[in-house]
Predict the 3D structure of the following.
Amino acid sequence: MNSNEIKDLYKEKIMQTYARFDVVLERGAGATVWSPEGKEYVDFTSGIGVNSLGYGDAGWAKAIYDQALKLQHTSNLFYTEPGVHLASQLTKRSGMAVAFYCNSGGEANEGAIKLARKYSFDKYGKGRSRIVTLYNSFHGRTVTTLAATGQDVFHNYFFPFTEGFVHAEANDFDTLAKAADGACAVMLELVQGEGGVLPLDTAYVQKVAEFCKEKDLLLLADEVQTGIGRTGTLFAYQQYGISPDVVTFAKGIAGGLPMGGILTNEKCAGVLSAGTHAATFGGNLISSAGALEVMRRLTPEMLDEVTKKGAYIRDAVRGWNCPAVREVRGLGLMIGISIAGAKPIDLANKCIENGLLMLTAGADALRMLPPLVITYAEIDKGLAILKKVLEEAL
Ligand code: PLP
């Protein structure tokens, strides 16, 4: 089928829950993708931070192929090998104690919320179930994680939302401390992704972590977008000098296969006991095989490269002194450009017309989440397109 035929069929047969870009993608290699007609795009999106190893990665493809020939899925009623190797890797490299697997970021956060409430219930009984999250956060699309999300635009239509979430201003410790009355946990994205690529201040995060320890509130780090090497360390909290009680991850873990999960420290390891939480597909063997390959490739050298490439992109954009660029922010290869005088979505569409896939974030930002393996040649090619679009914007 050609691009127009595919788009027409989509409009007819698929629920229109997405405002899609006007592009059909057929194949990719590294950080480059092509339409059915052969139009080439540099990809600064990686499927919204998912395809850590880019497209057509032979090692990843072999890992999932080999696993598919052995066993694809068994349910969690049986023991299998890949998931436990993955948990060993994740816990060793994060300092956490145990893992739980599910299928997406929203589901991982839902599990973390259940865990926090049960921890508190087991220890203190009823009445201590609130969870503090930040304004401008994004934690998922289930009814509960929408309630956790600190943006009112998401609090529509689906009433009643799950009770028990209070929101505090980011980087304002006093409002968080006040909001924490009757709470069992605080949940943070260390870099607010969907909200605009806004890194939290380190001193604030450290103060919140101390406060949580003092009050026995669980600190939940939502690392769905920041985790698995995206910010230049396996998890972003490793750059913030804190040790959360619970960490959630998804997106980049399995290199493009659906997988999410929860890591907890020793204190919380036994909270979700048999029968209290589950996911049929959680730890699916093919996703686990893909994830093991991602983890194998995320060496300290590769993570250093992520840091360097991120700095290279940020420095380049800052160096253009372009009036449309208000601010360049982010960590590692999670980058936001706040835009003045133009709509980010219009610029993203212009980038696409010119051969660069680009995301937006929050009200004012373009966002880049390229594959972690993107080459400098691909970065330069993408940046040249972005520069032209930004220069023509004003
Ligand atoms: N948490 C954060 C920080 C996210 O960025 C996202 C998705 O963008 C989610 C949760 C939800 O993840 P998923 O779409 O996999 O459910």
In short: The chain has 13 helices and 17 strands. The CA atoms of residues 132 and 180 lie 6 Å apart.
